[in-house]
């Protein structure tokens, strides 16, 4: 068999440098897909975090509103219960309890004075309970609305 009898090569011959380009482009495809996957995951995470934040804010806002409403209800119930027989000290404590929630910064949940203002409301509530000689305590999920 001489050199003319060799079977013909069935495809284009690539010089050795071209193989690096083929593998390099395969690596670029992998990197590109990783970048696209990262961006998609990041954007989906932002959306999920946004919805989670809204849900958390709604739940915390509801808890705060429920607690402040509880204190308002106690004030109204005490006034109705005692009527004209209310003592001056209890009346002063109830008035202080009624004024305090207006100082809670409900418009800005990041306000550092929020916890201080809420503690002040709770303090006024405790004063009312001392004047009333009641043992009523606020607790989420509980409904101890009797005197």
UniProtKB/TrEMBL annotation:
Domain of life, per lineage: Eukaryota
InterPro entries: Essential_protein_Yae1_N, LTO1_adapter
Domain (Essential protein Yae1 N-terminal): residue spans on this chain: 37-74
PANTHER family hit by this protein: GEO13458P1, ORAL CANCER OVEREXPRESSED 1
Similarity section: Belongs to the LTO1 family.
Protein name: Essential protein Yae1 N-terminal domain-containing protein
Species: Fonticula alba (Slime mold)
């Amino acid at each position: 068999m001489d050199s003319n009898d060799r079977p013909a090569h069935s495809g284009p011959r690539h010089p050795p440098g071209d193989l690096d380009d083929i593998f390099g482009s395969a690596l670029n495809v992998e990197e590109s897909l990783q970048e696209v996957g990262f961006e998609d995951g990041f954007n989906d995470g932002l959306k999920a975090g946004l919805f989670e934040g809204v849900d958390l804010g709604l739940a915390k806002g509801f808890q705060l509103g429920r607690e402040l409403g509880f204190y308002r209800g106690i004030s109204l119930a005490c006034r109705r219960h005692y009527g004209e027989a209310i003592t001056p000290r209890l009346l002063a404590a109830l008035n202080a309890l009624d004024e305090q929630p207006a100082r809670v910064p409900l418009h800005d949940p990041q306000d550092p004075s929020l916890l201080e203002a809420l503690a002040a409301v709770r303090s006024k509530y405790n004063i009312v309970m001392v004047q009333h000689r009641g043992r009523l305590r606020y607790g989420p999920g509980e409904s101890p609305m009797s005197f």
